[in-house]
Write a structure and sequence with these properties.
With about 525 residues, the chain is an alpha/beta fold. The protein has three domains: about 240 residues, Rossmann fold; about 60 residues; about 90 residues. It has eleven helices and 23 strands. Strands 1, 3, 4, 6, 7, 8, 9, 10, 11, 12 and 13 form an eleven-stranded mixed sheet that branches. The chain has a four-stranded antiparallel sheet with strand order 14-15-20-19, with no helix packed on it.
Length: about 525
């Protein structure tokens, strides 16, 4: 009898242990973790997963919020707005307890785009000085790894870290310099979410069904549908392995003969998992952070879409609006970097896809709470990744300080307002001139071109005729019709305001450009 009781006790203990082991602990995605920053003064969602029907309580400070996991195990609460400060503990009580420590409250910004946003501090100007002085325990960073997929992701592998000389090196340079200035100017904690991916196309950041609703993307989606049917990555890898085996044999023979080593074959990239396929980045690196409380986003991208600049006029605002719609935070601030100067300078005025892309970016200012940093003076003609990321960030942070935090500072580049033609002279009036128009390097204004009805542009002479006006003319153009400024891949131009913000490239005509018929 005693043996029977003992066996039943052992069996009960085993059953209880198995039952306990199968109960899932409450789980939070990586975006919620130790050292994170929560956006101040707004209701921030906190979400995660648990057993279906499990009751949970989220505690931070004096706040207490309850939720019940739905049939799929999802749960969410919204925190009452908190003022900047901390550190706090955020505790989730369920069948077990999860505790997040060293949680700060301050300003949170997303840093997104392609390689010039991903470009790391260790590759920017003065990397040694920048890293050794990066000692900001209340400036926090987190990076989402590159995952391209058509399946919406709920989580990612990553963790929040305080900025130190070691942690900052691989983080986005533009993001860090932007966040550092915000942190120093506002004297509050700042959190930066970096999900940039080099070479990414704008359509990869937009949900597939959003694109499919608009016929403007029919050709683009059809091209990808064909690729998806026919692309065979396994076959490409097999061919690569054959080439690599032959290369290894060639290396052995070259070494034996003391001859130069041949270049290794390049491994293929799976385009179906890459950064160009529509919706891939939306699903892989954006979806996991959508909904996290933020103040806004900074964006540096466009190079990959320059060949389809006219399409970008619609695609870029569509992308921004789709993000805002899904984040459910209203029209949060969205500031971007206009393309830098790049490629060879040209002797005569010419058409330019990069100029058309900059134009498309500027046209996107029609969106509320948007802003643009002009950097046609910061590029490098033969390097698509200019190293001066400090000044790029300064121009972005001016926008945030003025528009989001009420600091009285000149924040916007001068922009075309109107043109008046009298005889052979065109007078251009600008908005947002700050302390007044000025020139950089030389007193002579450079960068203007003028054309008559024949649409043939020639370089123009230009002179300031007021704080916000420039008079433009060319001896060979008796009846000017259009004026263009900084209209080139790598424009030679030097007009700015006295605060050093370059004039926004523009044209007064709407003549068809070189990318007007490019849709895929």
């Amino acid at each position: 009898m005693k043996a029977l009781i003992r066996n039943k006790t052992i069996l009960s203990t085993v059953v209880l242990a198995i039952a306990t082991a199968t109960q899932a602990d409450p789980k939070l995605p990586a975006i919620f973790g130790d050292h994170m920053v929560l956006q101040q003064k707004q209701k921030n969602p906190v979400w995660g997963w648990a057993d279906p029907g499990e009751k949970l309580t989220v505690v931070i400070g004096r706040q207490n919020h309850s939720a019940t996991a739905d049939k799929n195990g999802n749960w969410q609460v919204k925190l009452t707005p908190l003022n900047a400060g901390g550190p706090y503990q955020l505790v989730v009580h369920g069948k077990s307890t999860v505790t997040l420590t060293d949680v700060l409250v301050g300003e949170v910004w997303v840093c997104s785009g392609q390689s010039n946003m991903k470009f790391a501090v260790q590759s920017a100007n003065d990397p040694d000085l920048e890293s050794m002085t990066a000692k900001f325990p209340k400036l926090r960073i987190i990076t989402v790894p590159n995952v391209g997929t058509q399946e919406p992701q709920k989580d990612f592998k990553g963790q929040w870290e305080a900025v130190t000389p070691d942690t900052v090196k691989s983080f986005s340079a533009v993001g860090y310099f932007f966040g550092r200035t915000l942190h120093q100017a506002l004297d509050v904690p700042v959190g930066l979410l970096n999900n940039a991916w080099g070479g990414s196309a704008a359509e990869a950041w937009v949900r597939r069904d959003v694109l499919a609703k608009d016929k403007r993307y029919g050709e683009l989606l059809a091209k990808w549908a064909d690729t998806e049917k026919t692309y065979d990555f396994d076959s490409q890898m097999a061919q690569y392995q054959d080439r690599r085996a032959k290369w290894q044999e060639a290396v052995k023979k070259a070494r034996a003969a003391k001859k130069p080593i041949p270049n290794a074959p390049r491994a293929p990239r799976n385009v179906l998992a890459g950064q160009h396929r529509p919706a891939n980045l939306y699903n892989g690196v954006l979806k996991p952070i959508i909904g996290y409380g933020i103040k806004g986003a900074i964006w540096y991208q466009g190079e990959s879409n320059a060949g389809r600049a006219y399409q970008y006029r619609h695609l870029f605002p569509l992308m921004i609006q789709s993000w805002r719609d899904e984040w459910k935070q209203g029209d949060f601030s969205f500031y971007w970097v206009s393309l830098a100067d790049f490629r060879d300078e040209v002797a005569e005025p010419a058409e330019s896809d990069w100029a058309e892309l900059r134009e498309a970016q500027t046209m996107s200012l029609k969106l509320p709470n948007s802003g643009e940093a002009i950097i046609t003076d910061l590029g490098e003609s033969h390097d698509i990744h200019p190293k001066d990321k400090q000044n790029v960030a300064k121009r972005l942070v001016r926008l945030a300080l003025a528009k989001d935090y009420g600091i009285k500072i000149v924040y916007r580049s001068p922009i075309f307002k109107s043109m008046e033609i009298k005889g052979n002279k065109a007078t251009i009036t600008f908005d947002h001139v700050g302390g007044g128009l000025d020139t950089f390097d030389t007193r002579q204004i450079k960068g203007f071109a003028v054309a008559g009805k024949d649409k043939k542009f020639v370089w123009a002479e230009a002179k300031m005729v007021g704080k916000d006006k420039v008079e433009v003319s060319a001896a060979s153009v008796k009846e000017p019709v259009s004026v263009r400024y900084a209209w080139a891949n790598n424009p030679v131009c030097n007009l700015q305001n006295r605060e050093g913000l370059p004039v926004t490239p523009f044209r007064t005509d709407d003549w068809p450009g070189v990318t007007i018929n490019n849709h895929k």
